Amino acid sequence: MPLVTRVTDLIGRTPLFELAATSTGTRLLLKLEQFNPTGAAKIRMAREMVLDAERRGLLASGGHIIESTSGNTGLGLAVVAAERGYRFTAVVDHHACKDKLRAMRAMGAELVYVADDGDDNLATSAREDLAEAMAAERPDAYFTEQHNNDANAVGYYAVAEELLEDVERVDILLSSVGTGGSLFGTATRLRQLGRPAHVIGVEPVGSIAFGGEGGPYWQSGTGTPPGATIGTAVDYSQLDEGVKVTDVAAFATARAVAAELGLMIGGSAGGSVHAALTRLEEFPAGSTVVTIVCDGGEKYLDTVFDDAWMAERDLLDPAAETEVRQLLHRYTPASRRTELVEAR
Ligand SMILES: Cc1ncc(COP(=O)(O)O)c(C=O)c1O
């Protein structure tokens, strides 16, 4: 790697990890986006939204970026704002992971909470309304509006390009849908490059993007809570299937992957990995299945990886973890199996 001078030069070229393989040659590969600065995929689109606003004359030098965020978008924007000399205000709620908020502040972001009472409900629509109102009042401000910003998906085009450098083709792209940017941006670029994938979106049970009843959920950074508007970045024209995963299954998977392999993935990635692992044998033999791991598990040490936090919310399910561990054993890729035997 050449010498770099900006943190954003470190974005991308994230590793691809073979998590599982069936006897029929179907493989589950994880695009480990936690290897980006900020430990998340979102910095890709944060940079793209700012560059796009600059190109379109919507952000003047020294201007003010405002965004509603559950954490990772805000972290990405904080880096880009620091580098490019913008003021950045993140509109947040108490549902967000505390460490993400602390890190944003460390990088110079101002935090505005939608509710001061410590209510830890997900407040996506209230956050967005406040961000929009704040931007409307300030002539130098630009609301990046990730849910309805075309640059969000464009920010992930490089994910598709990197995947095709590492593997010949992606047959199935299966990943979580929050704004939709990461899944549909990657899918768009695969299609543009003449290598379209079958696209499966994953959202928490309780999220409303794929229909069904809305309700609360704990998977962070993903899904559309009841009452929130589904933005244009959710590109239904590219969605072949939408599936739902419970918090229990998602978190059991993140915990089992950590315990089995020493790989820390976040709760939303746990949901996607669960959906992929439980269906792996249904996919055509020899399929290459890719899941984008939007962030790492280290951000969830106080939640998903904390037994007391999990138990208080009725999310702890050792039997579900055991089931995932059994799937991981059953689908251990041959190369890893051999290395393990040799090591012993
Ligand atoms: C933790 C987490 N989960 C899921 C997602 C998927 O979100 P989106 O659909 O907005 O790309 C992201 C974004 O990268 C994320 O940070």
TrEMBL record:
Keywords: Pyridoxal phosphate. CDD domains: CBS_like. The keyword Metal-binding does not apply. The keyword Hydrolase does not apply. Pfam families: PALP. SUPFAM superfamilies: Tryptophan synthase beta subunit-like PLP-dependent enzymes. Its cofactor is pyridoxal 5'-phosphate. Residues 7-295 form the Tryptophan synthase beta chain-like PALP domain. Gene3D superfamilies: 3.40.50.1100. This is Cysteine synthase. It comes from Nocardia vulneris.
